[in-house]
Structure formats: structure tokens, C-alpha cells
Amino acid sequence: MHTNEFKTFISYHDPVSIMTIVHSVNKHTLPPSAIAVLSVLEDGSPKTFKDMTEQVSIAPRTVRYALKRLKENGLVIEKFNFRDARQVLYMKKIQSESDAHAEMAST
Q: What is the model's pLDDT at position 103?
């Protein structure tokens, strides 16, 4: 994904909620690919790896790295896919309002 495409992609999503999550990760900086993947998961519905690669138009290897970084920072969770056990479902981890405010205050 080129820089202009990334900016356009991010501009269509709620930048406030994305930036709240990004700022809550105070010790680690997320790469642009991780922010793009996180924005795909903003709606709260579970997505497969294939769904995400198609929506963000990033190479699968880069999406895999972005997911790894998001999981390391506790922003994404994996769920078992009961419809197809070969695929994993990814979801944005839901933060409570008090957790988000506490993390923002500590930065």
C-alpha cells in the first residue's frame, strides 16, 4: 500500500478511536500496516486473514507481521472459527472506557 493509499484508507475510518488505541500502546510504536489492519477491525466483527488482506490491499506477509505486532500489544485477539477450523478469526480487543482513560492518563 502506497503512502497516499494508506492516508486515504485511514481517512475513511474514525481517526479518533484509532489514535486512542495507538496512544494507549505507550511503550511500542505501531507500523502503518498495523494501524491499517486495526482500522479494518474497528467495526468489531470477526475477520479472517484473507478478509483483511483483501480490505487493506497489503501483501499477506505484511498483514501477518501487523497482526503479530497487534497481538503482542494486546490489541487483537484470535478466535476459533467454528465454521472452518482451518481459518482463524481476528477481532479487535474491546477496551473498557476506564481502562482506556487510565492508560491515557499514565502517558
A: 47
Q: What is the pLDDT of residues 15-67, one digit of tens each?
A: 555 555 555 544 458 899 999 999 999 988 899 999 999 999 899 999 999 99
Listed residue (61, 3, 62, 2) closest to 33, CA to CA? 62
Instruction: Write down the domain spans for the chain.
Output: 3-106
pTM, two decimal places: 0.62
How far apart (Å, rounded) are the C-alpha atoms in residues 72 and 85?
23
Ramachandran category for residue 31: left, alpha or beta (phi over 0 → left; psi -120 to 50 → alpha): beta
Give the right CATH number for 3-106 from 3.30.470.20, 3.30.70.360, 1.10.10.10, 3.40.50.720: 1.10.10.10
As a whole number, the mean pLDDT across the chain is: 75
